[in-house]
Design brief:
With 211 residues, the chain is an alpha+beta fold. The protein is 33% helix and 24% strand. A hairpin with a 5-residue loop joins strand 4 and strand 5.
Length: 211
Amino acid sequence: MERQIPLFPLSIVTFPGEEVRLHIFEPRYRQLVHDCIQENKSFGIPPYIEGKSLKYGTELLVKEIVKTYDDGKMDIKAQATGWFEIIDFYRIFPGKLYPGGTIREMPWEDDGDIVRSTILCDLIMELYEIMKITNVPIPHPKDFKSWMIIHKLGLNIDQEMELLIISEESEKQGYLIRHLEALIPVVREAENLRKRAELNGHFQNLKPPSF
């Protein structure tokens, strides 16, 4: 289905299911937030990547204005509810300060595969153990959704864009498994290199081979 919604281009990728927290300071986007609340409508975040056209985005609903500042700036929470393809982009929506566009809703399936979820959780645990990351909770496989942790797995914005336009959660899981299987050996080698560098100037207690 095609329809028009306000758009808020940002250099981030958000995923359906994710809660997004934004600091709104430009007058045009403060107007966008007020319009969405007053008219009970959604807005879209199309990832803005320098030199590339806006093709896709994520649809969100404003859940809460957490704080309003004296100068009109605000902090908000928004819930991502789906993703879309941009048919037409308007730098200024008619009669508004902010951009907008005609979008086509795209399918989104949030049910993953428990086997892939288990593999993913094990790989994430392995990665975090190597990197000594202890402050990022890893969901239980039965509760795992890729959007819960997708920004904390070393993906660049182009890779996140590739993930955004994968409609099925199980396929997203497969993508992340392949990514982590390629990433972990690189991180492990980098960690080994760091340890070897730290030994520079130290007395090494090495056991010689027995002949």
